[in-house]
From TrEMBL:
<keyword id="KW-0472">Membrane</keyword>
<dbReference type="Pfam" id="PF10095">
    <property type="entry name" value="DUF2333"/>
</dbReference>
<keyword id="KW-1133">Transmembrane helix</keyword>
<protein>
    <submittedName>
        <fullName>DUF2333 family protein</fullName>
    </submittedName>
</protein>
<feature type="transmembrane region" description="Helical">
    <location>
        <begin position="15"/>
        <end position="39"/>
    </location>
</feature>
<keyword id="KW-0812">Transmembrane</keyword>
<dbReference type="InterPro" id="IPR016936">
    <property type="entry name" value="UCP029693"/>
</dbReference>
Length: 313
């Protein structure tokens, strides 16, 4: 009888210990997710390129272009909790705003790398592309955003960092006597092609937001994905303006300023709670944040289109 009581007491103690361990795990997990949510930012600073003089070297210009392309991605990789889409603790399902923002960043970085590598880094279309930029575009940035890897081998962060490193290596090698010295050559056609990329990215983001089937609880995902795209576009545009004065001279200072202003508004857009009022599946009696950010994107896209039209003349 006494033995049975002792066995039951032991079983009770084991159950209690299990409950305590489970409770501690839950509390730590909630704390972890809360801290990630509080620290992760979907409104980081835009790339602020240095003011380049007319005597600036091709290497200085190449560094600005490389940084403008990789700045948004580098920000997210170096944020306190790093790359979230491949987090194995289910954070992407909970903190979907930050996760979708980062997905938007890599989505827009991929074609930017392709377009800029094919334009500014060679003299003619038939010239060979720099192998570092080819690897950055077709090996590293194309890596899936949600791959965690095995003991940090073949993880998304590692691949993206390699891509960023390759772009910086190319830029720093321009104007040097190194065997693998890079080429920097920006023509009017190249400027136009990069502006076209910016416009196409904004149109893509706008198309997603204009989907009438966006539900109330899906609207925040689309908004923050669009913000991620726009952050890359804004940085690339700022870098292009810094290295080539023709964007303002031929495209018009008013158009450039208006486009940057709208992209800045998109970057700063971060409501406490996202409403999808007025959409087919939204709530008609509440604010329509989807339409609000879509309008900013539409105006920025139109302004960039005006710049391109002016440069065609």
């Amino acid at each position: 009888m006494k033995l049975n009581i002792m066995e039951k007491a032991k079983e009770g103690n084991k159950l209690l210990l299990s409950l305590v361990i489970f409770s501690v795990f839950v509390v730590l997990y909630v704390l972890y997710v809360t801290v990630v949510g509080l620290i992760s930012s979907t409104c980081p600073k835009a790339y602020d390129p240095p003011v380049l003089e007319q005597t600036s070297t091709d290497q200085e210009k190449a560094i600005v272009i490389a940084n403008s392309l990789t700045y948004a991605l580098d920000q997210q990789l170096n944020s306190p909790f790093g790359w979230l889409p491949n987090d194995i603790l289910f954070v992407p399902k909970i903190l979907d705003n930050s996760t979708n923002y980062q997905k938007g960043v890599i989505y827009a970085t991929r074609p930017a790398s392709d377009i800029i590598a094919k334009t500014v880094s060679r003299y003619g279309k038939n010239d060979t592309l720099d192998s570092r930029l080819v690897d950055a575009t077709s090996r590293y940035f194309v890596y899936s955003s949600d791959v965690w890897g095995f003991w940090f081998i073949y993880d998304a962060e590692g691949k993206y960092r390699s891509g960023i490193k390759n772009w910086l290596s190319w830029a720093q090698s321009v104007d040097t006597n190194a065997k693998n010295a890079g080429i920097y050559n920006v023509k009017s056609d190249d400027v136009y092609a990069i502006l076209k990329y910016c416009n196409q990215m904004l149109e893509y983001a706008l198309g997603n937001l204009n989907d009438v089937n966006i539900g109330h609880f899906d609207s925040d995902n689309q908004i923050y994905f669009a913000k991620g795209i726009c952050s890359v576009v804004e940085n690339v545009l700022r870098g292009l303006i810094a290295v080539d004065s023709s964007v303002i001279e031929r495209g018009g200072n008013e158009n450039v300023s208006a486009a940057i202003e709208r992209l800045t508004s998109i970057r700063d857009f971060n409501p406490t709670y996202v409403f999808a009022g007025g959409s087919k599946k939204g709530d008609t009696m509440v604010p329509n944040h989807v339409a609000s950010i879509a309008r900013h994107i539409d105006i920025a896209s139109n302004r960039i289109n005006d710049i391109m039209t002016s440069m065609e003349k």
